[in-house]
Each structure stands twice: as structure tokens, then as C-alpha cells.
């Protein structure tokens, strides 16, 4: 069940759809303090009402140093995965490979299971690859997960909440088998981008309501040159930093 929910969340989070445009001031269910619409990008904005984000607290002594240490460990650990075939050989699996996506998640179930208990910056739950005009599967970063019931204190102990905004996918209405097309389009009803956000509305539409789809998640882009971009919540732009294209 846990593996199914994990893959479900990634599949629908990464599907290419026509994202509804929303402003940063019109996103119920999300703590937007310190974030603008530009910070979020249309993909995150389209999930308004289907996501919870951690609060951005004040920077505490040592926070920046801890965050920078995570970035350094991530960069060193994933360098071998510049060749995506090495990621596949090490147990990472491409989510939804037949759908053309700007950003692909290569998921490792063993790492996801470990992440429920402990944080290891050298073992991300997912590797993030971005398509470019010259290269498919160009490595840009990672995604870490934590148990769905992790507290703010636990998340902060992994990566400081003053630096990173963890998010959790919520209020998911799974479509009936004969209405799966309604996950997509300019005005989707079901899924991560759907207009249905409550259990009652989901039941009325014949769907299955999941208050919480999977886990807490956070992305890290170690090739960027500053902490804001290294822990960006905007997945619509590439985070290659100064990496040259082949």
C-alpha cells in the first residue's frame, strides 16, 4: 500500500497537464509566507488546495551551515548519476517513463523505506532529471522524503525549515475508472490538480478520497550556487547551475 501510494503521488505530480494559473495569494491549504507566484511556478500553483507546506521560521544559528552540508553531501553522492543508466543499475526506477515530462523522478523504494526512519543525504528517495533540447535525463537534483506523520521538529532536524519548505500532497480525489481523463486538461476535476478538494465532493463524484497521498517531500538542487535556488520549490525551471550541456 505504501509503495502504491508513493508511486501514485509521483505519477500525478509529474504528469504534464495544462496548469491552471493562480496567484500566490489564492492558494488554500498552503502556507505562502515568504513565497511569491514566481517562486512557486505554475506547477506548484496548480496544486492549490492539494498541498501542505511547512512554515518558514526564522534562521537559527547553524541553519545555513547545516543546509550547506546537506548540499555538499548530495552533490558528491549523485555525481555518478550524471549517467542515468547508473541510476537504473543502482535500483532507481523511472516514474511514468512513457509520458513526456520536463522533469522525471527516478525513484528508489529502498531509500524511501529508509527515509521513513532516518535521514541519509547520500540516499535520496528520488533523483530528478530534466529534459533539455540536447539531452534527455539531465541530472538536476534529488527529492528526499520523510514519514507522513513526521513532526516539524523532525523535518527541521533533517533540513532546517528556515531554509527548505517541505511539502505534503493532500486532499486527493482518485477518479473512477471511467473518468480518468478528468485528471488532465485545463480544468481537471480529480487528482493533484483537480477542483475536487473535499471528501464529500469526492464521494459525490464517485471518487476515492485520500486525505494524504504519501509523505513529506523536499527537493534539493545541489548544482545551483545559492541556498534559495538549491532548495527552490519551483520545478518548472531547470536547476543545472553552471553545468555545461554536452
Quick structural gist:
Residues 1-18 form the signal peptide. The protein is 28% helix and 18% strand.
Proportion of helical residues: 25-40%
The figure for the number of domains is 1
Report mean pLDDT, rounded to a whole number. 83
Order of helices and strands: HHEHHEEHEEHEHEH
Principal-axes geometry comes out as: globular
Number of helices: 8
Q: Strand fraction band? A: 15-25%
Euclidean distance between termini CA atoms: 40 Å
Number of strands: 7
| Sheet with most strands: strand arrangement | 1-6-7-5-4-3-2
Unreliable runs, pLDDT <50, ≥5 residues?
A: 1-29
SS-based structural class?
Answer: alpha+beta
Largest sheet: 7 strands, antiparallel
- Radius of gyration from the alpha-carbon trace, in angstroms: 17 Å
Ordered list of secondary-structure elements with their pairings:
Elements: H1 2-14, H2 37-45, E1 51-53, H3 63-78, H4 84-89, E2 93-94, E3 103-107, H5 109-115, E4 126-130, E5 138-146, H6 152-158, E6 167-174, H7 199-204, E7 208-220, H8 227-230
Antiparallel strand pairs: 1-6, 2-3, 3-4, 4-5, 5-7, 6-7
Keywords, separated by commas or semicolons:
246 residues, alpha+beta, seven-stranded antiparallel beta sheet, 7 strands, 28% helix, globular, disordered N terminus, signal
Task: Give a verbal description of the structure.
Keywords: Signal. Helices cover 28% and strands 18% of the residues. With 246 residues, the protein is α+β, with helices and mostly antiparallel strands. It has eight helices and seven strands. The N terminus is likely disordered. The radius of gyration is 17 Å and the shape is globular. It has one domain. Strand 2 and strand 3 form a beta hairpin. The longest helix has 16 residues. A seven-stranded antiparallel sheet has the order 1-6-7-5-4-3-2.
Amino acid at each position: 500500500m505504501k509503495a502504491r501510494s508513493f508511486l501514485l503521488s509521483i505519477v500525478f505530480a509529474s504528469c504534464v497537464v495544462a496548469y491552471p494559473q493562480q496567484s500566490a495569494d489564492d492558494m488554500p491549504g498552503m502556507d505562502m509566507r515568504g513565497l511569491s507566484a514566481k517562486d512557486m511556478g505554475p506547477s506548484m500553483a496548480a496544486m492549490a488546495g492539494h498541498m501542505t507546506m511547512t512554515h518558514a521560521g526564522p534562521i537559527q544559528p547553524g541553519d545555513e551551515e547545516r543546509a550547506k552540508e546537506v548540499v555538499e553531501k548530495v552533490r558528491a553522492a549523485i555525481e555518478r548519476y550524471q549517467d542515468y543508466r547508473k541510476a537504473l543499475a543502482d535500483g532507481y526506477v523511472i516514474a511514468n517513463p512513457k509520458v513526456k515530462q520536463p522533469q522525471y523522478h527516478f525513484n528508489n523504494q529502498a531509500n524511501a523505506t529508509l527515509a521513513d526512519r532516518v535521514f541519509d543525504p547520500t540516499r535520496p528517495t528520488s533523483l530528478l532529471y530534466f529534459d533539455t533540447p540536447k539531452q534527455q535525463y539531465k541530472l538536476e537534483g534529488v527529492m528526499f522524503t520523510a514519514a507522513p506523520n513526521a513532526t516539524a521538529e523532525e523535518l527541521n532536524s533533517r533540513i532546517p525549515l528556515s531554509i527548505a519548505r517541505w511539502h505534503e500532497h493532500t486532499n486527493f480525489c482518485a477518479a473512477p475508472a471511467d473518468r480518468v481523463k478528468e485528471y488532465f486538461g485545463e480544468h481537471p476535476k480529480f487528482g493533484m490538480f483537480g477542483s475536487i478538494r473535499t471528501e464529500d465532493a469526492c464521494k459525490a463524484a464517485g471518487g476515492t478520497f485520500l486525505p494524504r497521498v504519501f509523505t513529506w517531500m523536499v527537493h534539493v538542487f545541489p548544482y545551483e550556487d545559492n541556498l534559495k535556488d538549491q532548495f527552490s520549490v519551483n520545478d518548472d525551471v531547470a536547476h543545472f547551475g553552471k553545468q555545461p550541456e554536452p
